[in-house]
Write a structure and sequence with these properties.
heterodimer; A: 548 residues; alpha+beta; FAD/NAD(P)-binding domain; 8-stranded mixed sheet; 7-stranded mixed sheet; 15 helices; 26% helix; B: 249 residues; alpha/beta; Rossmann fold; 9-stranded mixed sheet; two-stranded antiparallel ribbon; 6 helices; 11 strands; 27% helix; 27% strand; globular
Chain lengths: 548, 249
């Protein structure tokens, strides 16, 4: 098959904060030096921002380095955090933690409640104005290597293949994008980043990455319940003490609030359903009082990296770099990653620009990890390094010890804790656990998966190869079902996986409703056999999130 | 033969439209916008006519805000040769758009205007017909098949109970129905090429058209929510409910 190819100086895969910041920084440096440099950025969402889902509270530190005048330039950071409240929830009560006892990482003075999707839309406009060629609607489907084994770019996916993989009547082959350097900025669990980590052994000698799934809804609430900039975080209920998870409620502008819940994907109980935990979280009196009388206007979910410094892979390989959450820069203790993503992109872009100026190509940009070692980003991740490992020891002890770590020792503890088991290996057999009786949705405050997926505006051409591939097609029924009671039915926030039986209730089979997928990547992470492989479907598909 | 195809920037068909809290319209803040699907079909048909050697040029026209340039680029990625944006921030109603298109037809002298039958945002289904009236041209609406030969267009239309075939002289206005064709995917190489195609911008005043709205929107509201269903025990109960509760028979 003959694919067309285009040559660029730099190819960026992914239009989130990391990819956009990389592309912007490259063009800024080029403009300073007066030399031209071609940068192409592809994004699998139908537009920039379509697949972005984050809380989000944004620390403007990195943005201010990228665009010192972001405020005058109209960046959509419109809701400064006005008040921080942190609670430990019980089923009906709430214990407020006085702000003086909160570690610095839980303080949000100077930060903003934002829609990260809208921040990315703004960054996308800035990038285009600076001369970055942005092509939304095209997924990086395949990494391309040159004769020396260095990454030489990516190919976008084919369009119009039929379910069996054959070329349909509207078939169009993908296109090759070649670069002197390629930036991988796919976000958490990027499917190309995962292949690169394997091929170049980037995660040798580091802790396994650990993940969370974040679920989020956008609500328009009654004006009398709304207070722009109010930020609420909570631990405790509905998570059991041994499970890491927490909720948030952020007041944006225009009487909108973002309500969400994060569950650590190292959870052990196969009956746990992050989606249902989130739904019942909203029924807590401390959350319900804000939402009642309001209307849910958007829903989505996305996995996030939480391993931090100990899990950070090698960032460079011949011809390319990992930036943002494709590497795993999120600061778990601050529940923030956008500023880390932007900073990592800028550091990589600086290294790349200098290499290009020296007429280098397709080697390792080792100046990037070196600059990271000297950066405030490294310092921030270093201080936060023990958060997730402590939390793995249970919420109560974890919170206490992390408090000591942060409040008493200010992140300078003489110890560094490690995570030794990957999330997928932590599930207990179903026989050791009891099914969880989640309350039925009421259609006003709590909802089912189908009405939620509807709000994500996700779409996929049905007649295409299934983008959720199984290495072993029999394992879901021969292993996952008897051993774990098919946990994919519960961890998937979009109802993609269903166990169906024949009319006699026998002969179970796994049905994969791939068109429901909202590209959160949780299945690729949590499947206990690592049997599910998330591949990019046709470009432009998946959710279309507004204001998320 | 030159073909002019009007294309409208509308809320993406895949997005769940939401009415603004004050009832003034649909909330479009940061919502994905796309080319109107029927206009995409019209572009595809025009490009096919060009590929078949019948048309020599496909001209895409959009009316509205600066962001409509993206809509024109989408049309050019499918294969339109160039674009004209009639740029205005004013609210545009079908009659105003028809007048703008009429003025452009006077300037560009197309032999055929191939438009979508309606836009999926306001569902007006008026612009093509108004343009035909203003230009004094024949029209064939809801086309499911178009054949151009010997200065005439033979247009098949899907009507109640079958197909109707019309023959009209050119120049003419033809509006595209859903089954006219299935638009191709815009490939990345073609999107790249589309960025380099000519795109001119004019203002309504340059065309001597007053676009002031003639209609005012009183209120926009969502359809009433569907009530919960009930199970009936037998046909008699169903009949009873249809007759006495739903009052439909």
């Amino acid at each position: 098959m003959q694919r067309e190819a285009m040559e660029y100086d730099v190819v960026v895969v992914g239009g989130g904060p990391a990819g956009l910041a990389s592309a912007i920084r490259l063009r800024q440096r080029a403009a300073e030096k007066g030399n031209d440099l071609s940068v192409c950025l592809i994004e699998k969402g139908a537009e920039i921002g379509a697949h972005i889902l984050s809380g989000a509270i944004m620390d403007p530190r990195a943005l201010s380095e990228l665009f010192p005048d972001w405020e005058a330039d109209g960046a959509p950071l419109n809701a400064p955090v006005s008040e921080d409240r942190f609670f430990f929830f019980s089923a009906t009560g709430a214990m407020r933690v006085p702000n003086v006892f909160l570690p610095q990482c839980f303080h949000n003075e100077g930060n903003y409640v934002v829609s990260l999707g809208n921040v990315c839309r703004w960054l996308g406009e800035r990038a285009e104005a600076l001369g970055v060629e942005i092509y939304p609607g095209f997924a990086g489907a395949e990494v391309l290597f040159d004769e020396n084994g260095a990454v030489k770019g990516v190919a976008t996916g084919d369009m119009g293949r039929l379910r069996d993989g054959s070329e349909g009547p509207s078939f169009q082959p993908g296109m090759e994008l070649h670069g002197k350097y390629t930036f991988f900025a796919e976000g958490c669990r990027g499917h190309l980043g995962k292949q690169l980590q394997d091929r170049f052994h980037l995660d040798d000698g580091v802790d396994p990455q650990t993940y969370g799934i974040g679920l989020k809804e956008l609500w328009e609430i009654r004006p009398e319940n709304h207070k722009t900039g109010l930020v609420i975080h909570s631990g405790g209920w509905p998570m059991k003490p041994d499970t890491y998870g927490g909720g948030f409620l952020y007041h944006l502008e225009n009487h909108q609030v973002a309500v969400g819940f994060v569950v650590g994907l190292g959870y052990k109980d196969p009956y746990l359903s992050p989606f249902e935990e989130f739904q019942r979280y909203k029924t807590h009196p401390g959350i319900r009082k804000f939402l009642e009388g309001g209307e849910r206007i958007a829903y989505g979910a996305r996995a996030l990296t939480a391993g931090g410094l100990q899990s950070l892979p090698k960032l460079v390989f011949p011809g390319g770099v990992l930036v943002g959450d494709d590497a795993g820069f999120l600061t778990a203790s601050r529940i923030k990653g956008a500023h880390c993503a932007i900073k990592s992109g800028m550091l990589a872009a600086d290294a790349c620009f200098d290499a290009l100026a020296a007429e280098r190509r397709r080697d390792e940009l080792s100046a990037y990890p070196e600059a990271f070692e000297r950066s405030w980003l490294r310092e921030e991740l270093h201080r936060a390094r023990n958060f997730k490992p402590w939390m793995n020891k249970g919420q109560t002890l974890g919170a206490m010890m992390f408090g000591v770590d942060q409040v008493v020792l200010r992140g300078r503890a003489p110890w560094t804790l490690h995570i030794d088991t990957p999330d997928y290996a932590k599930l207990k057999p179903a026989a050791e656990c009891a099914p969880i009786a989640y309350p039925k949705p009421d259609g006003a405050l709590t909802f089912d998966r189908m009405s939620s997926v509807f709000l994500s505006s996700t779409k996929h051409e049905e007649d295409q190869p299934c983008h959720l591939s199984l290495k072993d097609a029999t394992a879901p029924i021969t292993v996952n079902l008897p051993k774990y009671d098919a946990p994919e039915q519960r961890y998937c926030p979009a109802g993609v996986y269903e166990i169906l039986c024949d009319e006699n209730g026998a002969n179970p089979r796994l049905q994969i409703n791939a068109p429901n997928c909202i590209h959160c990547k949780t299945c690729d992470i949590k499947d206990p056999l690592q049997n599910i492989v998330w591949l990019a479907p046709q470009g432009g598909e998946g959710p279309t999130y507004p204001n998320m | 033969m030159k073909i002019l195809v009007p294309v409208k920037r509308v809320i993406d068909y895949n997005i769940k439209a939401r009415v603004k809290a004050d009832g003034s319209g649909v909330d479009l803040a940061n919502v994905k916008m796309s080319i109107n699907p029927f206009d995409e079909i019209a572009i595809e048909e025009a490009v096919r006519l060009k590929e078949a050697g019948i048309a020599t040029e496909v001209l895409a026209v959009s009316c509205g805000i600066a962001a409509c340039q993206e809509t024109l680029r989408s049309a050019m990625a499918i294969g339109a040769d160039r674009g004209i944006l009639v740029e205005t921030d004013a609210e545009l109603q079908p009659l105003a758009v028809a007048k703008l298109l009429k003025a452009l037809c006077d300037r560009e002298q197309p032999q055929l205007v191939l438009c979508g039958k309606q836009a999926i945002d306001d569902d007006a289904n008026q612009t093509g017909q108004m343009l035909a009236a203003l230009a004094g041209w024949p029209q064939a609406t809801f086309a499911s098949k178009v054949v151009i030969a010997d200065g005439e267009a033979t247009v098949t239309r899907e009507i109640d109970g079958g197909l109707e075939t019309l023959r009209i002289g050119l120049p003419a206005v033809i509006s595209a129905d859903l089954r006219l064709n299935e638009p191709r995917y815009a490939t990345l190489p073609n999107i790249m090429k589309a960025k380099k195609k000519p795109l001119d911008t004019v203002k309504p005043a340059d065309l001597g058209v007053d676009v002031t709205p003639r209609l005012s929107t009183l209120k926009v509201s969502e359809p009433p929510k569907r009530g919960a269903g009930v199970k009936v025990a037998d046909a008699a109960e169903l009949m009873n409910k249809l007759r006495n509760e739903a009052k439909v028979i």
